[in-house]
Amino acid sequence: MNQPIEPPYNLDELPFHIRLAAQVLGAGLDLLQARHHESWEAGHRIGFMEGSAVAQKLATPEQVRILSLKTTDPENQVCGKDDFLFGGERIQVSSDARAAMRADCESRLGRSGQPTVEQWKAILSTSNTTLLGGGAGTGKTRTLLFRALFFHRYARVPLSQIRILTFSREARVEMANDLQVLFGLFDVVLTPADCHAIVMTPRSCLISQSNSLPDLSNAIPLENYGASPHDASTLSDGRPFETSLNDTQRVEMTKCLNLLYRSNKRFNETYIGLWISALRLPQLEVDSPEVVRRASFGWKLSEHDDGLSDTVEALWRKARAWPVDGVTAARKVFTVRGRPYATHGYIPQLKLHVVLGFDRSEGPSLRRDPSASMELYKEVAIKRTLFQAYFPEGVVHLDSYQDAAELSERLKHLAQAAPSFSYALKGEETPTPVLDSFNATSALLDSLGLEVGSVPGRMNFLPADSDALYFEALAIYWEALERHLLNLSRPVIPFGRLFASLGGGKIPAVRYVPLKTLEQCRHLLIDGAEDQTLPVAAWVRAVLSEIRRRDSIQASTRGLSSSLTVAGDPNQWVYGSFGATPKLITDFEDLFSSPVPATKVTLTESFRSPQTIIDAGYNLVQNLSLGVNRGPKSIFTPKGEHQIVRIVGDDQEQLQSICQSAAADGYKILILIDSVVDKAWVDSAVGGRIRDDRASGVRSIRVRSFHKAKSLEADIVVMIGDPSAGVSSWYRNQLFKLAGFSSGGDSAPGDTVYHGEALRLAHVGITRARLACIWFPNRGVDTVRTASVLGGLKPGLFDDVRRA
């Protein structure tokens, strides 16, 4: 123990005059009731040390032990949680077994059929989690099939514990066939049924699990409801991101709509408000090009508005289309920018004015009078434009006699039946029947992992934006529809709700799935992971977590390993606009945590396309933030001379020539289309040749949409149309932000997704080609937000030979 610190000088030892000065200073401090701080601190330290030394001398051994106990921080008294989806054990397989697989591949497949060094790393991985990346044509799917072979034949995993998930029914069929062939080469005989039990889609796998639960064994997914027996097997896989309704679905949805319309006052008001907004003449800004172009004619036309109104109304009366029930036929003159213009009627129930338009059945050469400077239909169109820009109240512009008859019929039954109408959310190109729109939007929300019934409370709209009414009506309706469908003789449940039930909540329903069914996903391999959804990711996590939980409490499974292998390419993420996400790849280790480090492999050799085609495709996506923006190295040996991507104009003769030349050379063609207009253009150009090709059974020409190109390839790819990023959408940006797509503080994540998707669609299309790609991008495009413009086509990779 340290001795008390001695002061530097003893007062008695100081010289007299210094001692006297010190005494005077000390007396002064006492008189002022003050203290010298440094002296006080020194005395305090000395006293503390002396007291501690005395106490330690007097303490007994027991007292010393008791006093030495410490209080533990409460945080250190709480056990941690093991949130890993896997245990700490690797996949058990001997080095001899791995060597045997290599030897078998060499003897059975020949030199040209051997996996590459990179592929072998993924195939033989013993990690619980393996991530396989690579561009188009690098063999990701083939590598997954080899890994399934490795599990079964060399790691001795039963086939009943191996499950491969792929994106679509078409991909499932093709992959199952490839699996049967590959296993057969290694003396593992599988029937088509065996292969389809191994290769599934997330939806068909989900159905197999939900059918094992007593409460859900009889349930039908809404997307499958009403399918014919022939279609039911196909639809067990679901048709991801396809939201068209069949007649049976539409009948039940309409029945629920009318019941809710009559019983729920708030829904009634909201739905009617939405209908009114759909009926109203869409507004135009006063500085829009159409208004600027027509306004000067419109102001002059006001001098003849009486004659124009009389002429149009006379045509309607002659056709016996006016007046109609529910509309008060009464002319009313309004002053618009100081000039008189008349309406033809008023709808009291909706508080909307009515203006009669020009029915297309009338002759286009009709004029208001012989001296009129322009045709009648043009004057009607100009007046319509002025009303869109300047009319201060709500107005319905009836453009045909049929429109008037349908409006009258809906007004007649307005008290009992919800009117049917079409609606376009801001940012959508064309209006869609409201039930179809509700179904498509709810599917998007399900894919984004958002609850349909509660999402409106997290959104904001400007006061006059009718999209706010849309989402409120959707929320009320969809919850009522789910209850309605559950009460049918055979319960009907949307896929989104099934995924949420088995993969979400504090206790997901997968907890009650029998072990025999659950174990089918013990070794899970996912292909095309870039276009899966967040609910699928949550369901996969729940399944893997439940397998681990059961392994820890059941002696029969204790010590068994499980694994997840994910393959995909973020540059081929083309369903983002439908709610898909590449997070299964980009957030792989966060989503699928394991104490064993993940094996990550990127395949860098392409077996499909020549280097010029690969580089052209990657030129389009090089500035996107996701994925590897450098293309793989081509090791492809072309059958003929390969070319750079040719961009040609709107010329059907060129398409005919391409198809004729390809047929003469024995090449297969893949024609990719972007819209219904593209489909009609292709049919007009080479429809006869395509039908003859199908009838002969050769099928050397295939026509698909850009979105369905991923699993395909051909000698020559012809791209018709130009994938578009569309226009900005306020509602869409909010939804994607709520779903977590707003990386880096992006304030418009929906627009960002659409922008990237347009480029990736073109990238995917180009990289389907084995020899050549020809692109017809410029037909009927009225926007600059298209792939050919956004991509910045690099000379030397693209040859633009469009006619001036």
From TrEMBL:
One of its GO terms (biological process) is recombinational repair. Residues 113-610 form the UvrD-like helicase ATP-binding domain. It holds the Pfam family UvrD-helicase. It comes from the Bacteria. GO terms for molecular function: 3'-5' DNA helicase activity; ATP binding; DNA binding; hydrolase activity. Gene3D superfamilies: P-loop containing nucleotide triphosphate hydrolases. Keywords: ATP-binding, Helicase, Hydrolase, Nucleotide-binding, Plasmid. ATP binds at G134, G135, A136, G137, T138, G139, K140, T141. InterPro entries: DNA_helicase_UvrD/REP (IPR000212), P-loop_NTPase (IPR027417), UvrD-like_ATP-bd (IPR014016). This is DNA 3'-5' helicase II.
